Amino acid sequence: xxxxxxxxxxxxxxxxxxxxxxxxxxxxxxxxxxxxxxxxxxxxxxxxxxxxxxxxxxxxxxxxxxxxxxxxxxxxxxxxxxxxxxxxxxxxxxxxxxxxxxxxxxxxxxxxxxxxxxxxxxxxxxxxxxxxxxxxxxxxxxxxxxxxxxxxxxxxxxxxxxxxxxxxxxxxxxxxxxxxxxxxxxxxxxxxxxxxxxxxxxxxxxxxxxxxxxxxxxxxxxxxxxxxxxxxxxxxxxxxxxxxxxxxxxxxxxxxxxxxxxxxxxxxxxxxxxxxxxxxxxxxxxxxxxxxxxxxxxxxxxxxxxxxxxxxxxxxxxxxxxxxxxxxxxxxxxxxxxxxxxxxxxxxxxxxxx
Length: 354
Ligand code: ADP
Ligand code: MG
Prior knowledge:
This protein is elongated. A hairpin with a 4-residue loop joins strand 16 (296-307) and strand 17. Strands 6-7-8-3-9-10 form a six-stranded mixed beta sheet, with helices on both faces. It has a five-stranded antiparallel beta sheet with strand order 13-12-11-14-20. The longest helix has 18 residues, at 167-184. It is α+β, with helices and mostly antiparallel strands and 354 residues long. The two termini are 39 Å apart. It has eight helices and 20 strands. It has helices spanning 42-50, 92-98, 111-121, 137-149, 167-184, 195-201, 219-224, 229-234; strands spanning 4-13, 16-26, 31-35, 57-62, 65-66, 77-80, 155-159, 187-192, 204-209, 212-217, 239-248, 251-255, 265-267, 277-282, 287-289, 296-307, 312-318, 321-327, 336-341, 347-351. The chain folds into two domains: 4-232, P-loop containing nucleotide triphosphate hydrolases (Rossmann fold), CATH 3.40.50.300; 240-351, CATH 2.40.50.140. The structure holds adenosine-5'-diphosphate and magnesium ion (MG). Residues 13, 18, 36, 38-44 line the site of adenosine-5'-diphosphate. Belongs to the ABC transporter superfamily. Sulfate/tungstate importer (TC 3.A.1.6) family. One of its GO terms (molecular function) is ABC-type tungstate transporter activity. It is a peripheral membrane protein. One of its GO terms (cellular component) is ATP-binding cassette (ABC) transporter complex.
C-alpha cells in the first residue's frame, strides 16, 4: 500500500510561511492533483513529500511509514519536474538507466531489458540511442517520465510536467500520463496551475491558495460545489453575484440589485454566517439565455459576445453586475435578453468580504 498522508504540515522559508497546516491523504493508486496559482505552495508540498524540504511541524507518511529524516533517495518516489532537462551528454537509454542507479527495481529483469520496457511504456521504443537534443519537448518529458519510473517507485510526483509544452501537446500528453498511471496503478501526485488540466485527469483535486488547502474533492464536486469564493473563481468560468439575506430560517437569499424582489428570491441549503450579504456562484452554462419560464428571470443587456465554436460566451449586464452566459444557440444574441436561472444551480460561496 502506498498512501501518502500529510498531517498539519507547515513549511516556512526565512520565517515566511509557504505551507500552513496542509493536510491531505492520497490513497493507494490514486491520481491526486494539487492545483492553484503560482506561489501557492504546490512545489513546496511536492518537495516535502520527496524529502527535499523537512516540515517545521506536522508529519508526512508514505506507505504507512513516517518519513521524517528519511533522505529523498530512500523515499521510493519518482519525480518529474517542469524543466527537468535530461542529461545532454547521455543518450536517451543512459538517461533512463540513470533512474536505476539507487535501487534494483522489483522483478528479475536486467537493466537493459528494463530500459527497453520503459521506453516502450512511454511510446519511445527504438529511440534509446538518440541524444536528448534530437527529441521534441514532449518526447523529452516522456523520457523524464521513464527515468522517474525506472526504479519502480511506490509514488510518482509530477511537478507541472507539461507546462513548457504548447497547448495541443499538453492536452495530448495529459491523457498519455493518465493512461500510464492507470496502467501502472501507481499512486501519483500531480501539480499544475491549470485548473482545466486538473479537472480533466484527476481522481481527486486539492485546490491550494496562499499555502493552504482550500478544498479537496472529486473534480465534479470542486466544480459544482465550490467551498469558497476563491475556489469558485479559480476553477472554471463563473459568475459571482452579490446577494442579500432575506431570511435565515428557512435560509433564503435574494440577488442584490434591481428587479422584482419576489422573482429573485432563492432558497439555499445553508448560509455561511450572520452576514446580511453573501456571494453567490452561478456557472455560465447554468444561466439560460432566452428562458423566460425559469424560476428566476433577469432582464439583461448583451455587452460582448465571443464565438467559441461550440457555443457563444456572452457577457451580459444586469443591474450593474456583469453576468457571463454560455449560450449554445445558432446565432449571437444581442440587445435586451432574458436570463433564466434555476435556484438549484446557485451556490452560496461566502459571506461579505470572504
Ligand atoms: P508554487 O509551486 O505553487 O508556485 P512554491 O511552493 O514554489 O509555489 O512557493 C510557495 C512560496 O514559497 C512562494 O511564496 C515562494 O516564493 C516561496 N518559496 C519557495 N521555495 C523557496 C525557497 N527555496 N526559498 C525562499 N522562498 C521559497
Ligand atoms: Mg511550482
